[in-house]
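User: Run a structure prediction on this.
Assistant: Running it now.
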Amino acid sequence: MGVAQTDLPLDDLRTFRPAVAEPADFDEFWQRTLAESRALRTPPTLVPAVTPITEIIVEDLTFAGFGGEPIRAWVTRPRGHTPHPAVVEYIGYNGGRGIPGERLAWAAAGYVHVLMDTRGQGSGWGTGGDTPDPHGSDAAVPGFMTRGIADPDTYFYRRVFTDAALLIDTVCDFDFVDAGRVSVTGGSQGGGITLAAAALNPHVRTAMPDVPFLCHFRRSVELTPGNPYQEVERYLAVHRDRVENVFATLSYFDGVNFARRITAPALFSVALMDETVLPSSVFAAYNLCGSADRSIEVYAFNGHEGGLTAQWLRQTAWLAARL
């Protein structure tokens, strides 16, 4: 649990619309990035997972992500081949997809649930990941925030966000998915990835970012008291001459810039005692989000855990009204 009021008062947060740097070639950069990886796309594989679960189908998916590289995911779904709406979920910082069948709630509620492994991560909490990141990095702080940060083309999250957007293509091709009802969600890092996927792939019908990380990088790096943002702070404390270069790179990956491009309905959540993700960074993305149908759940006395199952219940009701 965090300390009271880690950021601006709620009334100020609701009107917080900062000037967040956006590169002039932001759209061109992402169009080029996605086109290069789509050109290397290979057919996915989907095989039964090894699990004692029998009443819900659990499958092991491998699909082509950034550079055509194999990315793993779990597909958990109701029995039968009647097309169902899908919820694609992205994972928090340094977590992995874990053991098959760990997350059954969405499938039990009638959705096809697709849980994407985050390349190179999966050893910080939970039960592990299965997807390597075959790319190296120049000098970096331990963690993922500064890997390849000298150039947008080499930055770690270029690969992750591309994986996330291309997964939507794969999901829409499944005969058991209603391609017109595909949603994206995730908490923390998963929330930041959600914003990117919703902006980059027009097949996303709704977006549900929870306590999203990777928003308003400049403010977050300067003011957040803990990790992972402190990885960037430590990097800049050593590489004193790279400050503007680093923030220029990060502007291509800022959740605020993705949020501006989201037109699908969006349900955010924020926790006002969050010491990992500043509430103002969440509100910056929410207030500047391009969707005409957007709302935000505020958890006044929670830290980075946010609303947990209470938020999931809100999401199911919100989705039912839109799908």
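The chain has eleven helices and nine strands.
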